[in-house]
Design brief:
By secondary structure, the chain is an alpha+beta fold.
């Protein structure tokens, strides 16, 4: 049972909770929060759903978590946008919103602690949520004001804290609730916090602390660094092992992400959604992760395929097209490669058991009788193999009269990073073959951007393009912790332990053991001046295992590879100057929002703004 489904408007209105803007707006001199105090003291548990729900926005934030990296491109536009071009500034609204929302969520967590007591179960949950909020902020902004009390006044002075001290304090708090709290050992799979989730968060924070405090950058373009101490890396590995909790990777990757297998043994902590429990119009009460990381295939009502409110952003980059090795089962579990062609009536395509979601809602026998609108093959399929496969399903590769099916020009394609081979279906089930430049192909749109991510697909979705997905969103999961442990072991010099964890992840994906880091051969195109290192293997495994999970910016910033990977693989960046200001300062972090300096009297833009801005 999901304990924090949805809040009624009346409940929210009765709680005049202080937000970030409440305590930094200079004109707001009122200390009045009496209505909220009265409500909360009569029912201190009221903060719980408010605090948990406040963190949902971060689980779906693509701009701040996945853009400006090597894995995603916005092919529908001439470039990948301000984040990917590193032209954001202190007034960028997405950055202001992230910062403000984080402090709102942290303040709600502080309210949980205040009104329920730090020693209570709800207090422990509040401590976890507070530190999760500060983890997000430190990875985006570095050291920030470190506020531990529930804000009810117009205090406008919160100085920027030292990053190292923040890390130490955060880890000490998490250790305290791991060792001494009433939290359950493992997740109840209702969205609440467990000690396993505490360990996962501590592992992430400890790993970030180790990189930020115990490594020194040598060359940003080459991605080289020196390790000055290893104890924090060992601590991160210990926390990751606690989070793994002896859980083997026995279920397939497909099963792990299956829509009907939520709350499985690998899910440590997730943001929860419930279609059945939503009190309003279910067409607007969910999230839209199933409608992101995809092409614009057309209007979902007329095409019968998933729609997207973004118009088709965050598609596969050229690197991502060749990221998955032949035989890697994660490819088919991550991406949808077959799109069924829905019949149309009155200009509207049928839905549910037709079109995109037929893949989930029909039996294999039923699917074998449905025509295919789009079919994509990864780069390692040969033309001979594709042509044999198409011949075996000739009855499904039929082009129908115009406007009788959602996709008027059905085709199949072999996706690669230089040329794409296209098979245009004909009326008799045969095809004609042509070749197109890869970038020209993906820039066309209308299906030509290729495959879409299916990790969050909700087969019960209505025929709308946004906010109708009710799949849970995992924040921490076990295989992620395997790779956190692997990274920590690698940096601690424990190569055998690192390879063991990497191989466990690869074995589950159907790939063989690597006997050494150098045994790995990346299949994507590598620039001639890009010298491969063991860390590249680790980051590639993270890319495959956690694709479209909004972790990539953190991964590249943390490991000091942000500049190197953007220059080598991102289409918006060609040299380090594009990621630096006129002084040559690299933009490793996001800028502290300008509004923070306007309203927080303890922050000075001359000394507190991040380098590069």
């Amino acid at each position: 049972m999901k304990f924090y489904k949805y809040l009624s408007l009346a409940a929210l209105c009765s709680m005049t909770l202080a937000s970030c803007s409440d305590f930094i707006e200079p004109e707001n001199k009122s200390t009045g929060n009496s209505n909220g105090d009265s409500y909360l003291t009569s029912d201190p548990t009221a903060f719980r759903p408010v605090a948990y729900n406040a963190f949902r926005t971060f689980a779906t934030n693509i701009e701040m978590h996945d853009r400006a990296t090597d894995l995603y491109s916005n092919w529908k536009s001439a470039d990948d946008g301000d984040f990917s071009k590193f032209t954001i500034n202190a007034s960028t609204s997405a950055i202001q919103d992230y910062y403000t929302n984080a402090y709102k969520a942290i303040n709600y967590a502080n309210g949980m602690i205040k009104y329920n007591g730090a020693e209570s179960l709800l207090g422990a949950e509040g401590i976890f949520l507070r530190n999760y909020g500060y983890y997000l902020l430190t990875q985006q902004f570095g050291g920030v004001p470190y506020i531990l009390e529930y804000i009810e006044t117009a205090n406008n002075e919160y100085p920027r804290a030292d990053l190292g001290q923040m890390y130490d304090d955060m880890l000490a708090e998490l250790k305290g609730i791991y060792d001494n709290s009433q939290l359950p050992a493992v997740s109840a799979h209702d969205g609440s916090v467990s000690k396993q989730a505490v360990a996962a968060l501590a592992a992430k924070i400890a790993l970030a602390a180790a990189w930020d405090l115990d490594t020194e950058l040598v060359d940003a373009v080459k991605g080289t660094y020196t390790v000055t101490a290893t104890q924090r890396f060992k601590d991160a590995a210990d926390w990751a092992e606690k989070a793994i909790n002896n859980t083997p990777l026995t279920m397939t990757f497909e099963q792990k992400w299956a829509y009907n297998n939520e709350a499985n043994a690998e899910e440590i902590w997730s943001m929860q959604y419930s279609r059945a429990g939503f009190p309003g119009d279910v067409k607007t009460g969910g999230h839209q992760m199933q409608n992101e990381y995809m092409s614009y295939y057309g209007d979902c009502n007329s095409i019968g395929l998933k729609g997207t409110p973004s118009g088709g952003m965050d598609n596969q980059s050229m690197k991502s097209i060749r990221l998955f090795e032949k035989g890697d089962k994660r490819f088919d579990a991550t991406f949808m490669t077959v799109f069924y062609n829905a019949p149309k009536s009155g200009g509207v395509a049928e839905w549910g058991t037709e079109g995109y979601f037929a893949f989930y809602n029909c039996t294999p026998t039923e699917l074998a009788a449905k025509p295919i609108g789009l079919k994509f093959y990864p780069y390692y399929w040969t033309e001979a193999e594709v042509e044999a496969d198409l011949a075996s399903i000739k009855s499904q590769t039929v082009k129908y009269p115009k406007d009788t099916r959602g996709v008027n020009t059905p085709f199949a394609a072999i996706l690669d990073d230089t040329n794409v081979t296209i098979y245009d279906f004909k009326e008799d089930g045969t095809w004609t073959k042509r070749t197109m430049d890869a970038e020209a192909f993906v820039k066309q749109g209308g299906g030509y951007n290729g495959i879409c991510v299916r990790k969050y697909d909700d087969p019960a979705s209505d025929q709308v393009a946004r906010n109708n997905c009710y799949r849970n969103i995992p924040v921490f999961h076990v295989s992620d912790m395997y790779l956190v442990a692997a990274e920590a072991y690698m940096l601690a010099g424990q190569d055998g332990d690192a390879l063991s964890k990497i191989n466990a992840v690869r074995n589950r994906a159907g790939l063989g053991n690597l006997t050494s880091y150098s045994a790995y051969n990346a299949q994507y195109t590598i620039p001639s001046d890009f010298v491969e290192t063991p860390l590249d293997l680790l980051l590639d495994e993270r890319a495959r295992e956690c694709y479209a999970e909004r972790t990539r910016y953190f991964d590249l910033r943390r490991t000091k590879q942000l500049v190197r990977y953007n220059i080598a693989f991102a289409r918006s960046i060609s040299n380090i100057s594009e990621m630096s200001n006129d002084k040559g300062e690299i933009k490793w972090y996001r800028p502290i929002p300008a509004k923070e300096f306007d309203l927080n009297y303890a922050m000075d833009p001359e000394k507190d703004q991040n380098p590069g801005y």
